[in-house]
Design brief:
Radius of gyration: 20 Å
Number of helices: 6
Strand content: 15-25%
Strand order of the largest sheet: 2-1-3-4-5
Shape: elongated
Helix content: 40-55%
Order of helices and strands: HHEEHEEHEHH
Distance between the termini: 21 Å
Number of strands: 5
Structural class: alpha+beta
Mean pLDDT: 86
Largest sheet: 5 strands, antiparallel
């Protein structure tokens, strides 16, 4: 999308946040991530104020050096003024699916998609750290599948990538792509970041 950015983990317990409707759940998780990261940024800002400037010397451990560099990255990101947090779930037969907890669950998930369909619900929340403006929305995409051979499912599971995404669903993967029948919506939204929505929210946040 042409933007420079810094990644930062919210490190929240997502399972502790439970909301029945998928649209409300992804928005609640994006809000919780934003609050957690803003708290981290405030801590970093306080560290910057309380610590005298210093020079990295050979006595510093590698871990300490990396930590100082990371603090500098995050401080720069905070000064830029925008924070974007997101979340995604898969909805299958009315049930919310998050990341598979095991290979067995991933197998069950993907077998269910074979010859059927699922939906992704993705949230984007943009916070202007300078003005306090915050706005978020969600986007839904329907995905229809042809029959997926058992061997393809096993190959996907053994590779492991499906264990790290909501619902074990990766339609852009070269193994699964030939079995995607129809996508009603945008592929970038299925991948976790609806670009048109994100761009619109960024522009709104920058205008405040």
């Amino acid at each position: 999308m042409g933007y420079e950015f810094t990644l930062m983990s919210a490190d929240i317990d997502e399972k502790a946040i439970r909301v029945e409707k998928p649209e409300e759940l992804v928005m609640a998780l994006a809000e919780a991530k934003a609050d957690a990261i803003m708290s981290k940024l405030q801590t970093i800002d306080n560290q910057e104020k309380n610590v005298e400037p210093n020079v990295l010397v050979a006595a510093d451990t590698a871990e300490a050096i990396i930590q100082k560099l990371r603090i500098g990255e995050f401080k720069k990101a905070a000064d830029s003024g925008l924070l974007i947090t997101c979340d995604q779930v898969v909805v299958y037969e009315g049930m919310i699916r998050e990341k598979p907890s095991s290979k067995e669950e991933a197998r069950l998930f993907i077998k269910g998609y074979s010859g059927g369909h699922a939906a992704t619900v993705s949230s984007v929340l943009v916070t202007n750290l300078n003005s306090g403006f915050r706005k978020g929305e969600w986007d839904k995409v329907e995905i229809y599948f042809n029959d997926i051979p058992d061997q393809i499912i096993e190959n996907l599971i053994e590779e492991g990538m499906v264990l790290n995404v909501a619902g074990g669903l990766i339609i852009e993967h070269p193994l699964i792509l030939p079995y995607v029948k129809e996508v009603v919506g945008t592929t970038d939204s299925v991948m976790g970041l609806p670009k048109a929505l994100t761009d619109r929210l960024i522009k709104e946040a920058l205008s405040t």
